[in-house]
Amino acid sequence: MGIKIESIDEITTDFEACLGATTITLEDLSKLEKGSLIDLNLPSGSPSFVLVNGEPVAKGEIMAFERNLAIRLNQIFDKDEVYYYPRKYFGT
Predict the structure, then answer these.
(1) Which of 28, 82, 34, 30 is nearest to 54 (CA)?
(2) Does 42 map to a domain?
(3) How far is the C-alpha of 75 from the C-alpha of 17, rounded, in Å?
(4) CA-CA distance, 47 to 60, in Å (whole number)?
(5) Most exposed among 31, 45, 66, 76, judged by the fewest C-beta atoms under 10 Å?
(6) CA torsion sign, 9 to 14 to 75 to 80?
């Protein structure tokens, strides 16, 4: 039994791009409404992380592509970097 190698291309996974994080007070949170902007306190060109199934796998930068946002991958992590980078930038 097991997975046939021919069907591996059809396996789905969750893909996320982390734009940033910030801390706000509960008072400010309660005032948010449609159209509100939340300052992530990041300069343009700051690194963004790509998560697959909740685990960091790459670092990139957010950019405009046609009329959408996209992420340009600058680095794909090896096993040591998977641990190091998110903790360096997010303190996790």
Answers:
(1) 82
(2) no
(3) 14
(4) 6
(5) 66
(6) negative
**CATH number of the CATH domain containing 57:** 2.30.330.10
pTM over 0.85: no
In a domain, 9, yes or no: yes
CA distance 22 to 48: 14
> Which of helix, strand or coil describes residue 81?
helix
Would residue 54 be called left, alpha or beta, if left means φ above 0 and alpha means ψ between -120 and 50 degrees? Answer: left
pLDDT tens, position by position, 14-68 = 888 877 778 889 999 999 999 998 888 777 667 788 888 878 888 888 887 888 8
- What domain range includes position 84? 1-19+47-92
In a domain? residue 32: no
C-alpha distances in Å from residue 65, one per residue of 50, 77, 79, 86? 17, 24, 30, 25
């340009």: which residue's tokens?
A: 72
Token reading at 54: 């909740």
